[in-house]
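re: that chain from earlier
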Amino acid sequence: MTARYFYLLPKIHKPRESWPRPDMPAGRPIVSDCNSESSKICAYIDYHLQPLSVLHESYLKDTYDFINKIKGQHIDPNWLLITADVESLYTNMRLDIIIDVIREIFREYPNPSRPDKHIIRLLEITLNNNDFEFNGDYFLQICGIAMGRKYAPSVANIYLRKFYAMAIRGWRIKPAYYSRFLDHIFGLWPGTREELLEYETFLNNLIPGIKVKFTARDRIIEFLDTQVYKSFDQQGACTLATKVYFKDTDTHQLLHRTSFHPKHTFLGIVKSQMIRFKRISTTHHDYTQAANTLINILRTRGYNVNNLRRTKRQIWLQYDVNLNRERNNENKREIIPVITHYDNFHWRLNKAWIRQRQSYIYRHTCCSRL
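^ sequence. v structure.
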């Protein structure tokens, strides 16, 4: 077992004028919980909390889930695109409120096989005994939850359930759309900027310590690793579109081509990035912009420009986003793992299985195109 220790992750992406010192950015406080006496207990708690934490309408699993929900959505062109971050969520969650909201969600979603009483007790023990080491001294965290805890994201999601309910239905103006990825919020605002400030004040008085600050844009806004913008057709209809967003601090430090790795590793890196760009980009122009940015960086890291351009072209022409979505849905079905040994018989068995799988994908692709 190892002691928990405290450290900071510098937020170098924040504007320099917001840094507490000219040579030091703000830090994200982390209390490492790896291999501590409570790490397995926290994993056990999270096993029961995680399925409950996603049971709210605003839940976003990841970037692709967000894109699937908003891309192509018809909206009023006068609506504002809004985003917000919950300020210092983990460190501002009160321990007593955490216990109360967990009890509440257990009552709302009863499960006879879930040991609610014991989970609550374990949660109280781990929350109230989060001691850690820093600079040779030991401290006890008395407010907030350690970001290193396994169950921290699940608890944060559950903690904001009341916030979500009031954000959707609690004020006189309802957002036209509202979604949340942990402490990151995206929405469509049908009111004015002045009314948005009133709405922000309303939200900031719901839960002690929980504060948000909205950013509103008329045409385009950043959310996660995307830019969401309004697209207009020839008839003037307005829909939401997305493209890739690179932060100013993103230097694309992907594996250098001179590194001693198998050749297919480098191809896989490029293909995965191009596939990501296509899945995010609404138009070919958006895709080309993101791909060219990556190509210009990778050419300085030893990659062959012709190979990069070839991969860029192949992904756009051949990669089927809809087919990939169907595969993801297929993967949600129960899967039984088959473990084979490394011998001649199982080697031939694996090869035969791969050929069968490739034949199925090929037939499925051809039928889809027909």
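Residues 336-369 form one domain.
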